[in-house]
Amino acid sequence: MLEDAQKELRLGDRGLIEERFYQKRSFAEMGLSLNMSEDAARMKVNRALANLRAIMFGGEDSTRLAGPPAAGVQPACIRRASGVHPA
Q1: Is 48 exposed, middle or buried (0-12, 13-18, 19+ CB in 10 A)?
Q2: How far apart are CA 21 and CA 64, in angstroms?
Q3: Backbone dihedral angles phi then psi of residue 54, each to the nearest 5 degrees
Protein backbone atom coordinates (compact mmCIF):
# COMPACT_ATOMS: atom_id res chain seq x y z
CA MET A 1 0.00 0.00 0.00
CA LEU A 2 2.77 2.46 0.94
CA GLU A 3 4.85 1.72 -2.13
CA ASP A 4 1.84 2.13 -4.42
CA ALA A 5 0.98 5.45 -2.81
CA GLN A 6 4.57 6.67 -3.15
CA LYS A 7 4.45 5.94 -6.87
CA GLU A 8 1.48 8.31 -7.15
CA LEU A 9 3.34 11.19 -5.49
CA ARG A 10 4.85 13.99 -7.52
CA LEU A 11 8.50 13.34 -8.24
CA GLY A 12 9.65 16.15 -5.92
CA ASP A 13 7.59 14.85 -2.98
CA ARG A 14 8.83 11.33 -3.59
CA GLY A 15 12.42 12.56 -3.56
CA LEU A 16 11.95 14.45 -0.30
CA ILE A 17 10.48 11.41 1.44
CA GLU A 18 13.24 9.19 0.09
CA GLU A 19 15.96 11.55 1.30
CA ARG A 20 14.46 12.00 4.74
CA PHE A 21 13.39 8.47 5.59
CA TYR A 22 15.35 6.09 3.38
CA GLN A 23 18.62 7.99 3.25
CA LYS A 24 18.08 9.22 6.83
CA ARG A 25 19.18 12.77 6.06
CA SER A 26 18.59 15.47 8.65
CA PHE A 27 16.52 18.54 7.85
CA ALA A 28 19.72 20.58 8.09
CA GLU A 29 21.42 18.39 5.47
CA MET A 30 18.37 18.54 3.24
CA GLY A 31 18.15 22.31 3.56
CA LEU A 32 21.79 22.65 2.60
CA SER A 33 21.46 20.46 -0.48
CA LEU A 34 18.21 22.17 -1.54
CA ASN A 35 19.59 25.66 -0.89
CA MET A 36 16.96 26.52 1.74
CA SER A 37 16.72 26.77 5.50
CA GLU A 38 16.30 23.77 7.76
CA ASP A 39 12.78 24.95 8.62
CA ALA A 40 11.85 25.24 4.95
CA ALA A 41 13.10 21.70 4.34
CA ARG A 42 11.03 20.47 7.31
CA MET A 43 7.94 22.20 5.91
CA LYS A 44 8.45 20.66 2.46
CA VAL A 45 8.81 17.17 3.97
CA ASN A 46 5.70 17.69 6.09
CA ARG A 47 3.72 18.74 3.02
CA ALA A 48 5.01 15.72 1.10
CA LEU A 49 3.90 13.47 3.96
CA ALA A 50 0.47 15.13 3.98
CA ASN A 51 0.20 14.45 0.25
CA LEU A 52 1.19 10.83 0.83
CA ARG A 53 -1.45 10.44 3.56
CA ALA A 54 -4.07 12.00 1.28
CA ILE A 55 -3.23 9.49 -1.45
CA MET A 56 -3.27 6.56 0.96
CA PHE A 57 -6.43 7.47 2.85
CA GLY A 58 -8.27 9.75 0.44
CA GLY A 59 -9.13 13.41 0.64
CA GLU A 60 -7.02 16.51 0.74
CA ASP A 61 -7.09 17.10 4.49
CA SER A 62 -5.15 14.28 6.03
CA THR A 63 -5.09 15.92 9.48
CA ARG A 64 -8.51 14.41 10.19
CA LEU A 65 -6.85 10.99 10.20
CA ALA A 66 -5.05 11.67 13.45
CA GLY A 67 -8.26 11.01 15.38
CA PRO A 68 -9.46 12.76 18.51
CA PRO A 69 -6.95 13.77 21.15
CA ALA A 70 -6.39 11.48 24.11
CA ALA A 71 -8.69 12.00 27.08
CA GLY A 72 -7.86 15.22 28.90
CA VAL A 73 -5.49 16.43 26.18
CA GLN A 74 -6.25 19.71 24.43
CA PRO A 75 -4.30 21.41 21.67
CA ALA A 76 -2.30 24.41 22.90
CA CYS A 77 -4.50 26.90 21.01
CA ILE A 78 -7.59 25.68 22.89
CA ARG A 79 -5.80 25.74 26.25
CA ARG A 80 -4.69 29.34 25.69
CA ALA A 81 -8.13 30.46 24.55
CA SER A 82 -9.82 28.90 27.56
CA GLY A 83 -7.24 30.16 30.06
CA VAL A 84 -6.11 26.59 30.88
CA HIS A 85 -2.35 26.32 31.05
CA PRO A 86 -0.21 23.20 31.42
CA ALA A 87 1.13 22.51 34.90
Answers
A1: buried
A2: 23
A3: -65, -40
Predicted confidence (pLDDT) per residue in 26-49, tens digit = 999 999 999 999 999 999 999 999
Residue 79 CA to residue 69 CA, distance in Å, equals 13
- Supply the range of the domain harboring residue 14: 2-66
Q: Which residues contact 38 (CB under 8 A, 6 or more apart)?
A: 27, 28, 30, 31
In a domain, 74, yes or no: no
Residue 87 belongs to a domain = no
CATH classification at residue 16:
1.10.10.10
H or E stretch covering 5: helix 2-8
What total number of domains does the chain contain? 1
